[in-house]
Amino acid sequence: MRRKPFPWHITAFLAPAVLIYTTFMIYPMVASLDFSLYQTVEGGKQVFVGLGNYIKLLTDPLWSQPFWNAFWNNVIFFIVHMSLQNPIGLFLAVLLASNIRGAWIYRTIIFTPTILSVVLIGFAWKLILSPTWGIWFPLLDKLGLGDNEIAIALLGNEQSALITLSLISVWQNIGIPMMLFLAALIRIPTELIEAAQVDGASSWKIFWKIQFPLIIPTVGIVAILTFIGNFNAFDLIYATQGALAGPNFSTDIMGTFFFRTFFGFQLRPGDPNMGATVAGMMLLIILVGVLIYLFGWQRRMEEVQF
To answer: What is the pLDDT of residue 297?
Structure first.
């Protein structure tokens, strides 16, 4: 049997994209991982230490304490997004897919914060929640909650700052899962919905028995994108709380910890090798999450389908 010739034309089409991606993504990532295996000694010389930097990061109290603080803060950041952003985004997508009047207006309004500058978002919310000139406290006074425990400096309190920033991030980014869910819902054949309505099925039953099972692959994709995005998060925390992720590092996540480690802060100089080590740990965490999705979620979906 004659073998088919190799499709060189496909290689020609893919080559530019592969070259650009390798230059700006693969090579920097590999170089960063290689850089994390060295330490800078006197004279600026790089000395190979293998996994020594990773061991230091996980065992030395000077490094392990802020690392685990940032990691668990990031976990909380992710849980808030998974428990609020994605379910609310799905709820909004179902409403918009039900052919309500003016759906395009609602889509635009909900998605608008997503395309705004994060610096603008952070600055605006700092003004809103400012105990000095923000509208938060006067609003609570008008609602009769001025003397309630909720009337606190939300961004200046260690117990509330991280949750507050997580909710701001949910508000800003909720348009992304909403649009992904909406794109999946509108691909469902209308005949299935109409047949269920003729049989007397309620909207709730139509969602759980028809719509949701058909968009489960999209639910998995949105979940893993949320995981990757949250463990790469940096800009909102930096825009509102600065590199120190105050108060008292209570809003510190992996991104801000990496920034301080690599570039330094206040009078403490940066350590590029340890910064690359933190970046390597971020890559490992994200990689573990992606592998769980690939070998867990997708296998489960295959079992459901067959």
So the answer is: 63
Distances (CA, A) of 280 to 49, 283, 302: 15, 5, 32
Partner residues linked to 47 by β-bridges: 39
147 vs 141: CA distance, rounded Å: 8
User: Tokens standing for 27?
Assistant: 């090579």
Q: How far is Cα 110 from Cα 93, in angstroms, rounded to an integer? A: 11
The pLDDT value given to residue 282: 95
Encoded tokens for 154? 């939300």
Query: Before 269, cis peptide (omega within 30)?
Result: no
Cα dihedral 202→203→208→214 (10° resolution)? 120
**Predicted local confidence at residue 39, as pLDDT:** 92
pLDDT of residue 200: 84
Close Cβ partners of 298 (under 8 Å, ≥ 6 residues apart): 220
* 11, containing H or E segment: helix 8-21
- Alpha helices by DSSP H, 99-234: 103-115, 118-129, 136-142, 161-173, 175-185, 190-198, 203-206, 212-214, 216-231
DSSP state of 38: E
Collect contacts of 90-93 with beta carbons under 8 A, ≥24 apart: 90/177, 90/178, 90/181, 90/219, 92/174, 92/178, 93/177, 93/178, 93/179, 93/181, 93/182, 93/185
